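#random but structural
TW: two for the price of one
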Amino acid sequence: MAEQKARVPDAKVALSTASVYPESTATAFEVAARLGYDGVEVMVWNDPVSQDVEALRRLSDHYGVPVLAVHAPCLLITQRVWSTDPWTKLQRARAAAERLGAATVVVHPPFRWQRQYARDFVRGVQRMADETDVRFAVENMYPWRYRDREALAYAPDWDVTKEDYPHFTLDLSHAATSRSDALAMADRMGGRLGHVHLADSFGSAKDEHLVPGRGDQPCAAFLERLTSSGFDGHVVVEVNTRRAMSSAEREADLAEALAFARRHLARVPGPGVPEPGTVDPGAPAPHRGVHRP
C-alpha cells in the first residue's frame, strides 16, 4: 500500500488580536508574523489602533500579515466604540473588512436589553449580508451563570443555530461554557459554518479560552472534521494569555496553539494512518500542563 502523506490544510489559521491582551493590537501583528500565522482577526475594542482602518492597513503591510476577519465591537466594554448604535457598528465593521480585504465580520447576537436591535437582528444581518461579499458570521454564545442561577443574556438566543443566519462562527470555548456538544453544533450549522474560534475549556461557568489541548473539549476531532468536510473558512486562535508571566511565555502558548491547529487540520482521515508530525518543527511540545486563565 502506498504511503499516505498529510494533506496541506485548506483552512488558514489566524491569530485573534485578543489573544495577546493586555498587549496591543500592533503586538498581535508582530507576533503573528514571527510565529508564521496566516493572518489576524482584528478584535475591535478600546485600543485606538483596532478602530483605525488606515493604522491596521499599515500594520498589515509592514508585517506582511493579512487581516482575514474583523470582530465587530459587541462586548460590554465596547458599547461606545465606533458608535452607541449597534447597526452603525456593523456597518463600520463591514466597511473595515472591505477596505482591509477581510473575508468575514464576526458578530455576537444582541444583548436582551437591546430590544429594538434584537427584534430586527436576524432580518437585518441577512439584509447586510446581501449587500456585500463579506460574510457576516454570527457567533454562538452561552447563558450567564452565577452559582445555581442562569440568566439568558442574549436575544433571540445564545444558541445561534435556532435562527436562519447566512453564516455562523463556532467558538469552542463558548460551546463548552453553554454545555453544548461542539461537534453536534457544527452538524446543525452545516454548510453555513463559515468561521471558527479555536480554544479549549473544561466546561465551567467561566468562558476559559484555553490553549487547545489543555482542556477536555474535542478540539482535535473538530479540526479533523473540518478538513474532511470541505470547510472553506478560517480557523482563528482565540485564547486567553493574560496570566502569562512574560512575552516569551505568551508567544510559546501561541506557537503551541498554531502547531496544534496545523497538525490536526493536516491529518489524513482513515484507519491505520499514522498521525503526521507537527507542521512547525520548532514549535514547543504540545502540552505543558493545564494553564488556566
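TW: number two ↓
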Amino acid sequence: MEVVNVTADADTFTCNAYLALGERTTLVDAGSMPGVVDRIREATAGVDAVVLTHQHGDHVEELDAVVDAFDPEVVAYADHPHRTRAIDDGDEVVVGDERTEVVFTPGHADDHVSLVGPESIFSGDVVVHDDGAFDYGSFGRTDYPGQSREALIDSIERILDRLPDGVEHMYAGHGGVFHGDVRDVIETALSRAEKREPKYPDE
C-alpha cells in the first residue's frame, strides 16, 4: 500500500496527514497546512474517506477544505459537523488496501483512536517513533487540561494487546514514519511513559 504524507515539509505547525492509496483512498487526518488539497490532488483525483484519529486543531483545521474539494465520507469517534460515520472501539475501517481495527486510545485526547491493520498502524498522537522528545519510541503529551498519562498508558497497552505480529509500518501524527519492528518501538514508548516523568522539561 502506498502512503503519502501530504503535509510533509509544511511551513506551519501541523500533524502528519497520510493519504493511503488503494482500494479505498483514505486520508488519515486532514492537518492544518494551507494548500493540503493541492498536495492531495498531486497524488490522486479523489478521496473516498477521511478518518480522524482525534480532533485537535492540528489534525482537523483543513477538514473543511478537504470536504469541499472531495466530498468524502468523514469517519470519527466523536461528533463533528462533517462526520458521516461514527466509529467505536473494535469497528473495522478500510484504509487504502488494509482492513484496520479501530482501537480506542484516549489519554492525549478523549476521542483518540488508532487504526491497527495486518501490516500498518496509524497511531495518531498516542505513540510515535520520534518527535523531538525521544527517538525510537515516544508518546503523546499529557500535561494539558483534560489529558491523562494513566489513560495514555492504558491505551498503549491496549494497542500492544491487539497488534498483529506482522505490523511493520507505523504512521504517527508527528515525527517520522517507521518501518521495522513496530512492536519494539511501542514497547519502548510504553516503558518511557510508565516512568511518569515529564515528556518535556516544561511539562
